[in-house]
Design goal:
Mean pLDDT: 95
Keywords: FAD, Flavoprotein, Oxidoreductase
Number of domains: 2
Number of strands: 21
Distance between the termini: 24 Å
Low-confidence stretches: 461-467
Cofactor: FAD
Protein name: FAD-dependent tricarballylate dehydrogenase TcuA
Radius of gyration: 23 Å
Pfam family, one: FAD_binding_2
GO molecular function: oxidoreductase activity
Number of helices: 12
CATH class of the largest domain: Alpha Beta
CATH architecture of the largest domain: 3-Layer(bba) Sandwich
Length: about 475
Amino acid sequence: MHDVLVIGGGNAALCAALMAREAGASVLLLEASPREWRGGNSQHTRNLRCMHDAPQDVLLESYPEEEFWQDLLKVTGGNTDEPLARLVIRASATCRPWMRRHGVRFQPSLAGTLHLSRTNAFFMGGGKALVNAYYRSAENLGVEIRYESPVDRLELREGRFVAAHAGGRRIEAKACVLACGGFESNREWLREAWGRNERGEWPADNFLIRGTRFNQGVLLRHMMEQGADIIGDPTQAHCVAIDARAPLYDGGIVTRVDAVSLGVMVNRDGERFYDEGEDFWPKRYAIWGRLVALQPGQIGYCIIDSKAIGRFMPPVFPGVKANTLPDLARALGLPERRFMQTLDAYNAACRVGSFDHTVLDDCHTEGLAPPKTHWARPIDQAPFFGYALRPGITFTYLGLRTDDRARVHFDRRPSDNLFVAGEMMAGNVLGRGYTAGVGMSIGTAFGRIAGTQAARAALGEAAHAVA
């Protein structure tokens, strides 16, 4: 029997396994995917949002706790647990030396990643390099890893973990960490959550999955059926508007189109539907998937002109190009007359001041609904470009309620040997909304906590200290 069983194979699971092993526990990690697809959604990440009070290696200036908290408060609309959120924020200030010890390397922010050089530490080689570094370290430390080992159910006794069942095998452990993600890859569950809209459509049928196909939510559903305390809205998710040509699974970050704040977004009827310049893109990019999901056919179109080229990270697919706006409308299959009415009204409403996409500038619209609050410039310089966008689900926010010791709760009573980390509990901090890199902050913080607490539960409190 192992001391600690970790179920999952992404960032949070690996942090938990490493911490538990460092604390002296024997650890078994079960990853549902084959080895070549290991890492869950973490393989598609690229940075970690970090609190810091002064410049630190790849991080510029400072990003104090209160600013981080206010950023999170704003994007969630207050739908967050402040003590747990602040725990994550403070943990983000101290985790990088530990990450380096396990082989993770950092680099300065990339060109085109606006506003992140001060707030986010980028992984050298991206999320896949981070995941590989953690797996190497785990193997070197003696963590046993089994791939293609999805867990079907848990044996629980009065809120205590007894054993896991995976492919007909019963696996006992003294403590367990659940870190196997949400249900974003489960199309039927997405359909159930979103239902039909007023147009009779099933919105979820048009969702693309930015990350792993293996996050089916099997254990999340099982834990709900076992009476675990749940938190979150099943329709809330890290949901980004991504290129409609992206693959169904594992498109990752390269399918994102970061040009929205530099142009306008219209739906398939050729109408704008939200303020493209509401705030800095890293604080708003993750609202656009949900906004597009609410549009007819769950599709939107980002329209820019040549002035925007070179000011955003180029996506993997080129945009549709045309020399006139009517030609662009026809190329995108949009109603030309309504499209031109929308673009003409927008262009006429622009009040251009000192354009600067690195600040909340004074370029705005007047007398237009919805407005464009910043970076509003007429779309008038050929050639013109359009990107068809669909909702891209990264991870869902419905999850297990927890506390500052990462414990799973049953009827508000914490388990003493069952813990949770990562996307499976991110809804405690992210009731809605998102800001760049905070998912990795949550997974790293709670993965480390869960691993430490699981080792203590397995081996006894006196034998361990937080690494």
